# Entry
Amino acid sequence: MTLPAKPRIFIDGEAGTTGLQIRARLAERTDLELVSIDAEKRKDDAERARLLNSVDVAILCLPDEASRQAVAMIENDRVRVLDASSAHRVEPGWTYGFPELSTAQEAAIRTSTRVSVPGCYPTGMIGLVRPLVDARLLASDYPVSVHGASGYSGGGRTLVDAMEGRGGAHKLAGPYRAYGLTLDHKHVPEMRTYGGLAHAPLFTPSVGAWRQGMLVEVPLHTRLLGGATGRDLHEALRAHYEASRFVDVMEFGDGSPDVLDPETLAGTNRMELFVFENPAQGHVLLMARFDNLGKGASGAAVQNLDLMLGLDAERDYAVREEVTA
Ligand SMILES: NC(=O)C1=CN([C@@H]2O[C@H](COP(=O)(O)OP(=O)(O)OC[C@H]3O[C@@H](n4cnc5c(N)ncnc54)[C@H](OP(=O)(O)O)[C@@H]3O)[C@@H](O)[C@H]2O)C=CC1
Ligand SMILES: CC(=O)N[C@@H](CCC(=O)OP(=O)(O)O)C(=O)O
# Structure
C-alpha cells in the first residue's frame, strides 16, 4: 500500500467526547494533516461527504447509526476508515483494532482499509481472556463472567454533561449505577468473538462518579480450569505481553495491592493486567485497569491510525481531563 508523505485525517464527530480526545493526541503532530469541519456544518451531510471522501483516513467518532451512514457516504476507494463506534466490530470485512491480540492481528491492521476500534469493556476482557484461551489454560467453553466499572465519560457527552452540571438528564447519572440488566449489552458479541469463546460471556457493566478510568474483572474457579493455577495464568499473560508497549502484566497478586483505583491510568493508552488468587478457596480474579477514553477508545484509535499509516505506533500522550465535549 502506498502511503502519502503527510496523510490527511478527518474526524467525523470531532466535537464529541472520543473525537476531542483523539484531536488532543494529534494536536502536536506534524507528520499528519488534520482536516476539520466548520462547527456549523458538523451535521451537514454534503460537507461531511466532501471531507470524508477527501482524506487518507476517516476516523468516525459517531453514534452507531451515523457511523453506518458515514461509511455509506464514502465513494472514494482510497479512503481508509477507522471507526470508534460499535457499528462494525464483528462485521465481515472489518479488522478488529486490537493489535495486542497477535502479531497476525497487528499485521492485518497495518494493511486494512476498514478498522474497528474495540469497545472499552471488551478491551479489558479480551486482553485478559484471549491469551489464556489461545494457551489452552482456559477452555473456550468456560462459563465466563465479566464485570466492569467505568468512569462516566464512557457514556459520552450527554452523561458527561449530566454529571458535570451542564444540564440534561441521563439514566446513568449518579454516584454509582449498575446497568445492562437485560444481559445483552452491545459489547457481548465482540467479547465472545475476539475472546475466543464458544458461549456469550455474562457481562454486567456499571458506571460511577469519576470521569475517566475503568476496572474490568473476570472471576474464575480453579476447579473448572483443568489443573491450571493462578500462577500459570499469570505466567501465560506475562509471556504474551512481554514485548507490548502499552499492556503491562503486574506482579502476581496474593492480595497485594489490596485496593485498585480505576483512575490511575487516566489520560494514557496503557493497560495494566492483574491476577489474584486464593488457592484455599479455589478462586482466581483477573483484572484490567485502563482509561475508557485511552486504551478503551481514543488512545487505541491513535495507536491503530499509526499502524495503518506505517508511523510510530508506540507514542503515548498525557491527555488532561479538561478535554471535554
Ligand atoms: N466515550 C467512550 O468512552 C467511548 C465511546 N465509544 C464510541 O465512540 C462513539 C462516539 O462516542 P462519544 O464520543 O462518547 O459520544 P459523544 O456523544 O460525546 O459524541 C458524538 C459526537 O457525534 C456527533 N454526531 C451525532 N450524530 C451526528 C451526525 N449525524 N453527523 C455528524 N456528527 C454527529 C455528536 O453531536 P451532538 O452532540 O451535537 O449530537 C457528538 O459531537 C460512539 O459510537 C461510542 O459508543 C467507544 C469507546 C469508548
Ligand atoms: C458508561 C457507559 O455508558 N459506557 C458505554 C460504553 C462505552 C463504549 O465503549 O462505547 P462503545 O460501545 O461504542 O464501544 C455503554 O455501556 O454503552
Q: What stands out?
A: The two ends are 35 Å apart (CA to CA). The domain at 120-292 is CATH 3.30.360.10 (Dihydrodipicolinate Reductase; domain 2).
